[in-house]
Amino acid sequence: MIPASWYLILSAVLFSLGVIGFLIKRSLITVFMSIELMLNAVNLSFVTFAHQWHSVKGQIFVFFVMMVAAAEAAVGLAIIIAIFRARATLNVDQVDLMKL
Amino acid sequence: MHLILFIIFAGFCLAGAINLLLQTHPINSALSLIVVMSSLAVLYLLLGAEFLAIAQIIVYAGAVMVLFTFVVMLLNVGEEEKTHGSKAAKIIGFPAIVAAFSVLTTVILAIQNKLGGVKLSDGVTPMTELSTVLFRDMLLPFELTSVLILVAILGAVALARKEGHR
Amino acid sequence: MSIWLFLLFSILKVAVVTAIFLGGVAYTVLLERKVVGRIQNRWGPSRVGPFGLWQPMVDGLKLFLKEDFIPAGVYRPLYLTAPLIALGCSLLSIAVVPFGSQDITVHGVKVFELADLNIGLLVLLGVTSMSIYGIALAGWSSNNKYSLLGSLRSSAQMISYELALGLSLVGVVLRTGSFSLADIVKAQSAHGALSWNILGGGQIIAFLIYITAAYAETNRAPFDLPEAETELVAGYHTEYSSMKFAMFFMAEYGNMITVSCVATLLFFGGWNSPFGHLFPEPQNIVIQALLALFWFIIKVFFFLFLYIWVRGTLPRFRYDQLMGFGWRYLLPIAMLNIVGTSLVLSALMANS
Amino acid sequence: MDNIILSLILVTPLIGALLIALLPDRRTLSAGVALVFALLTFAFTLHLPAHFDNAKLGFQFVQDIPWIASPNIHYHVGVDGLSLWLIVLTGLLAPIGVLASWNTIKDRPKVFYSLFLVQQTAMLGVFVSLDLMLYYGFWELSLLPMAILIAMYGRTLSENGGPNASLRFFLYTFIPSAPLLVAILWLYAKTHSFDFVALQDAISNGTFPAGALLWASLAFLIAFAVKVPVLGLHGWLPDVFQEAPIAGAMVVAGKLGLYSLIRFHVGLFPQQAVKAAPWMIALGAIGVIYGALQALVQKDFWKLLAYGTISSLSFCTLGIYGATLSGLDGAVYQTLNEGIIGAALFVLLGVLYDRASTSQISQYGGFATRTPMLATIFVIASLAMIGLPMLNGFIGEFLVLSSTFTGTSQAWAITATVGVILSAAYMLTLVQRVFYGQQSNLAIAHAPRDLDLREKFILYPLVTLMLIMGVFPNLFLTGIESGLRQTSGGLAYRAVSLCARPGATCGVQATFPVRGGQQ
Amino acid sequence: MNPQNMPDLIRILPEVVLTITGVLIMLFDAALPATNNRRSLGWLGAVGVTAALWSSLIQLNLPPGTAFYRTVQTDPFSVFFHVLICGIVLASILLSLDALPANQHHRGEYFALMVLGAVGMCLMTSAVELLVVFIALEISSISTYILAGFRKHTGTGPEAAIKYFLLGSFATGFLLYGVALTFGATGTTQINDIAAHIPAASSQLVLAAFALLMVGVLFKVSAAPFHVWTPDVYQGAPSPVVALMSTAPKAAAFALLIRLLYSSFPVLQPVWQPMLWIVAVLSMTVGNLAALRQKNVKRMLAYSSIAHAGYLLAAFAGLGINAIASASFYVAAYAAMNVGIFAVLSIAAGPDEKLSVIEDFRGFLFRAPLLGTLLIFFLASLIGIPFTAGFFGKFYSFATAIHGGAVWLGIIGLLNSGVAAAYYLGFAVKVAQPPAAGSAKLPAPELGVAVGLSLALATTATLVLGIAPTRFLSAAQSGATSFLPPVISDSVKPSTDVPDLSKVRWVR
């Protein structure tokens, strides 16, 4: 038996790594991957909690998150393709026609 | 047994995630992410979520990430250029992440005893229970997903399609 | 039962199944060459051994001994991993396939199945979806435009047809109420061929969709665009030679066998005899097992033959036709099939 | 009639504005419609003095309709002696403004006249509102049309003069109104009422903590002081005078702010007003001098007029915070004067500007020979501004100065009196340099016309009014005084201030009702 | 199925109508010949949205209650937001009918996305199950991501889309983590049930969950410090889309925020009230100061929308249901004027958005008197000039805050609106300034029927909300009463004291 908190900490670590990836990665597509990593980390939390509460709801949530992630991926990649067509680059720092 | 499996696959997860950050070529990052996702699937199995484990493989590793690699290949995205990123993001971002992470970890460790443990013998969530909740209690979100996917398809077509021919 | 015994049996089973499976792959190749030869009014391989039976061995030896050439400019790590992924997935998927009745056990270990999962069908789908990577990465890492085009085509094609494939299985699952392959077979055992899913289960449309989609999934004719010689040299494995090429080759034929097995299990009653209980069941458990294996192999053989037959007779699709067919016809029909099946099932349930 | 007359006054210009907006964009048409509606409004405002009962206590012509239940906002309007003449004045200035703009507004007259009429409604609304929210609404509403008018019809040729003046005007007034709103909301939070009378009650009953009340009163004070403008907060005025179209400029300063000071600062917060009074008196007295001195050195006559206005408005401040009844009377009277004289001077200078296309005083000279009528009226208006007896300016200034001298502070009164002398200096210098002396090149080159019919039509009534107000001040003062005594809290304020002074009797409170209210 | 014996479908009738409309649009889109200009689809969408609006009014006749196994709840609150969102979408569709460029690709998809996005937005306001909230949020977000990128031939269009998309998904990650922790702490994701379980839960976990949820939600409403996406997205997206996405998804997100705060985490009020205090002050200050420096009109309005989020959040410093009512009212007021101003901008700038900088609008009033007047009118409303929606919204919000004791918040807020007046008025003045002497005469923009309708809708709403807000106010207030205790929980009586939290008092 291992404590459920290990799973949760793993999830937190993965989530943080995802956030770090979001900040340091310089290619739009890897930035997007970092977001997927974050979602996966959250899913792990959900499953752990579902296990802990003996409730199926957590698992159902994960299932829906997957669906949403799939939909998001379709749209996100479509946008990435569009931007590549318009700008011929995926570098975050070069996609800056509008400066903050 | 459980401990060994957990350590192995958690290790894979972490290694994959870190590798995702370190790799400069998108395709390598994508493959690292696939490793993370597949290892997560195993962890789900350990937690008794059999259906989710396989759904994770089918949906994430098998569909979403294929899409990613597909796009990387289609656009022939090269190595990431090492440009200086936004300084502000780093200066504010990293301490924030570290702080948030430590807070989360403290919280989790603080409630460790409440949470209990995970055993291999805990059993697997039966599919029937899963489907009861999914198709009865969660009927509305389930139906709603169809709208979501419809929107996504519409959008993907509208954005990715080259103009000039309808 | 001790865990060690379980491990021992499992390793044994894996070894046997892998050996048989690889042998099956080798002889499927021979079968194909022979049958296609006949279709094209020629002999096929006939020189090595009686009826050319040693031909696969010789082929294997040749591939093994050829120079393992790695072109310059390939992305090595992925170039090397890709064939492994392809073959690995192909071998993995056979693990959940039961070849015979579950009731036959030795020391509590089921003889005819490597892994008994109650979501076996989903695992199959999962492995299938992972197998795309082998091809996709192979094409991309080869740094060759034909390879890349082949692999792009292949990924797109596999994603597109995977949907129809998955949906075609839903009818069967609905009827059985389980994802376990063994359960699915059991549900078809009542009245012989009449209760098979393809007939009594009313899943003939699902079967047709399945078989079409499966051909596309395995990149076989008439959907073999990813490796269309006339357009793309050899598609994704243009740059591969020797054993690495052989791995792709083995993966493809391995997939064919798996697909045939699954078709047998899902639609043709698995190891059940088509005559049901017309004839009395033999009492001897060994004979029983062998009989089941016989029926199973016969059916799988039939599907392999069908594969080859189709390849020998049908022309190749054009790429847009391929995609159009998948999305515009196959997918909606598969959905209608699900709707129809569930309506009928609920009506039946309401009556009983 | 009596109970809807105020609504009628408010709605008439608005209807006019709408009508103009719907009609085609033609100069005479728009201006004509605007004139008709302005005159109509003026006619309605005349109803008020005709039926106003000087003897009656409290607000008259009251209309009180619940508007929004929560927060508790009422459409509550009413008039007392304080606001009575201000309303009439506003009504009078509207047709004059329209006439004054008749020829000068050529581009998009539709926008101009509709905004002008909306502005008219807003100003009238400020004078009649008895619900603080309603009041605040009109107060803010009066800003935007004016700002837009200044931006659209900036008079100088400089590229961004109009827009800059407009922005400055708006921000100067708008930003202080933020604390004002907070103060109003704070009052509301405690009492659940925006009603002027109810709040006056609540404040005098000590519902509020004194410390916070001081801050609230300060918020009121600053918001109004900017609008007057009191010295130190006058930064927007010269620019606006220089840029605003004449019809706008003549109404922008003075009466709104001064009225609000009396009604809502002094009236609501008598005790706090007493605390502020020394400062305000000082500012007022110094303002008189400062404005006059500034006016003396201006080269541009719009700016001269601006500083002159600051100077004469400072009299009003002085009068209000001098805390004597006659001082308040004088302040209100001076406010009316300022409206009339300022309007007249604006029109006159506008005529000059129209003839010679420059506002540099040095360019003028010897205009009197060519434009005798213009010169005459200009001199009369200037004398009124200076405060010559028999003209209206005298009454106001005299009341303020005398009451300050006797009731408040002799030193400040003397300071202010110096300002009066200075005002004579700058006004007469202006007259001298523009109309007399050697004929300038300008006068020769442009051969300026004398006043035409339209201009006479504008100016004669104003001059007449200056004379009437100078000769028969009681015609107006009775009403004003009754208003101040009875309703606006002015007396409560005076009572407080008297009590605050050592050795004073506090008996006044017993003689008059300390605060007004609907009996 | 549910206690009132009401067919569950009626409870989601507007969403059903919207979905059907969206699907119909797509079907007709496929059926129409390629050369068709597809205006009919827009009209179809408009009719569908109107029907949805009407059908959500029908829900008022129902007793408040839940449906679909307690995943949606219709009450006056949800109806208020349904009507609001449908109104916004209606105006945006009408606007798009005339403002889309003639060569716009995928018109059918465009309208379908607007209508289907509305499904998500509407459902967000009535969902009481975090799962439904999540999916509805994704529907609304994804459709707006796509719409933001519709000018894909320009460089900025896809850039806006990708920035919106990445940052939006990033925020969704946080929101989801918050949901996960909430689930972990309480064992439920039913919004109304959470409150009852909080006392038994670990307070640290609840706090962490709440913080993460807030990050996600505040991101969606573009409150500082989670606002960085707003300017770029507004600038790059087509103006008609900005009209939609600056208002409708925000309205939905605010509805969600209100539900979370008052249904799920009322116990944490001592925590969230000061937190929102800070966020409100930060939002308005950052938004206004940044807006002052902008030259691009859409960027300026983007920053101003951040500031407006701040004004709105100020309402939460107020007490009880008044805070909800004033926040709801502010959302409506902001929606009315912002849709209006973007409607004017998109017509003024034309389909190619030629006029982008404030300087470009010089003399616009002289060029197009009606549009110019409307532009100034909406700007006046944004400033908060009385007798416009903006004034009353701001007034009500700050009145509530001050009533709740947050006098400083009121002062800061109103001073901020003074600062804001500077740039709004700067723009208005530019519009009113006579055109430069040598400037080329641009033709006056044309005003179509559809856009006229949309402008009329926005103008009327802005005026009515400013002059006769009583009806809307009482609607908002009756919506707010949905949060009175009996509805909050029907299973377990919520206890209101969490010992270690109630002591927390930061700023007041």
TrEMBL record, chain A:
It is a multi-pass membrane protein. Its EC number is 7.1.1.-. NCBIfam families: PRK05715.1-2, PRK05715.1-3, PRK05715.1-5. It catalyses: a quinone + NADH + 5 H(+)(in) = a quinol + NAD(+) + 4 H(+)(out). Keywords: Cell membrane, Membrane, NAD, Oxidoreductase, Quinone, Translocase, Transmembrane, Transmembrane helix, Transport, Ubiquinone. The chain crosses the membrane at residues 6-24, 31-54, 60-84. One of its GO terms (molecular function) is NADH dehydrogenase (quinone) (non-electrogenic) activity. The gene is nuoK. It comes from the Bacteria. It is found in: Cell membrane; Membrane. The lineage of its organism: Bacteria, Pseudomonadati, Acidobacteriota, Terriglobia, Terriglobales. InterPro entries: NADH_UbQ_OxRdtase_chain4L/K (IPR001133), NUOK/Mnh_C1-like (IPR039428). It is an enzyme of class 7 (translocase). Belongs to the complex I subunit 4L family. This is NADH-quinone oxidoreductase subunit K. NDH-1 shuttles electrons from NADH, via FMN and iron-sulfur (Fe-S) centers, to quinones in the respiratory chain. The immediate electron acceptor for the enzyme in this species is believed to be ubiquinone. Couples the redox reaction to proton translocation (for every two electrons transferred, four hydrogen ions are translocated across the cytoplasmic membrane), and thus conserves the redox energy in a proton gradient. NDH-1 is composed of 14 different subunits. Subunits NuoA, H, J, K, L, M, N constitute the membrane sector of the complex. Its main location: membrane. It holds the Pfam family Oxidored_q2.
UniProtKB/TrEMBL annotation, chain C:
It is an enzyme of class 7 (translocase). It catalyses: a quinone + NADH + 5 H(+)(in) = a quinol + NAD(+) + 4 H(+)(out). The chain crosses the membrane at residues 6-30, 78-99, 119-140, 161-182, 194-216, 253-273, 285-309, 329-350. GO terms for molecular function: NADH dehydrogenase (quinone) (non-electrogenic) activity. Its main location: membrane. It is a multi-pass membrane protein. It is found in: Cell membrane; Membrane. Keywords: Cell membrane, Membrane, NAD, Oxidoreductase, Quinone, Translocase, Transmembrane, Transmembrane helix, Ubiquinone. Its EC number is 7.1.1.-. NDH-1 shuttles electrons from NADH, via FMN and iron-sulfur (Fe-S) centers, to quinones in the respiratory chain. The immediate electron acceptor for the enzyme in this species is believed to be ubiquinone. Couples the redox reaction to proton translocation (for every two electrons transferred, four hydrogen ions are translocated across the cytoplasmic membrane), and thus conserves the redox energy in a proton gradient. This subunit may bind ubiquinone. NCBIfam families: PRK06076.1-2. NDH-1 is composed of 14 different subunits. Subunits NuoA, H, J, K, L, M, N constitute the membrane sector of the complex. Belongs to the complex I subunit 1 family. This is NADH-quinone oxidoreductase subunit H.
Automatic annotation (TrEMBL), chain D:
It comes from the Bacteria. Keywords: Membrane, NAD, Translocase, Transmembrane, Transmembrane helix. It is a multi-pass membrane protein. Pfam families: Oxidored_q5_N, Proton_antipo_M. The keyword Magnesium does not apply. InterPro entries: NADH4_N, NADH_Q_OxRdtase_chainM/4, NADH_UbQ_OxRdtase, ND/Mrp_TM. Residues 70-124 form the NADH:ubiquinone oxidoreductase chain 4 N-terminal domain. It is found in: Endomembrane system; Membrane. Residues 129-421 form the NADH:quinone oxidoreductase/Mrp antiporter transmembrane domain. The chain crosses the membrane at residues 6-24, 31-50, 82-102, 111-130, 136-157, 169-188, 208-232, 244-264, 276-297, 304-325, 331-353, 373-391, 411-436, 457-477. NCBIfam families: NDH_I_M. Belongs to the complex I subunit 4 family. This is NuoM family protein.
UniProtKB/TrEMBL annotation, chain E:
Keywords: Cell inner membrane, Cell membrane, Membrane, NAD, Quinone, Translocase, Transmembrane, Transmembrane helix, Transport, Ubiquinone. It is a multi-pass membrane protein. The chain crosses the membrane at residues 12-32, 41-59, 79-97, 109-126, 132-150, 162-185, 205-229, 241-262, 274-292, 301-321, 327-349, 370-393, 405-426, 447-468. Its EC number is 7.1.1.-. PANTHER family: NADH DEHYDROGENASE. NDH-1 shuttles electrons from NADH, via FMN and iron-sulfur (Fe-S) centers, to quinones in the respiratory chain. The immediate electron acceptor for the enzyme in this species is believed to be ubiquinone. Couples the redox reaction to proton translocation (for every two electrons transferred, four hydrogen ions are translocated across the cytoplasmic membrane), and thus conserves the redox energy in a proton gradient. This is NADH-quinone oxidoreductase subunit N. It comes from Acidicapsa dinghuensis. The gene is nuoN.
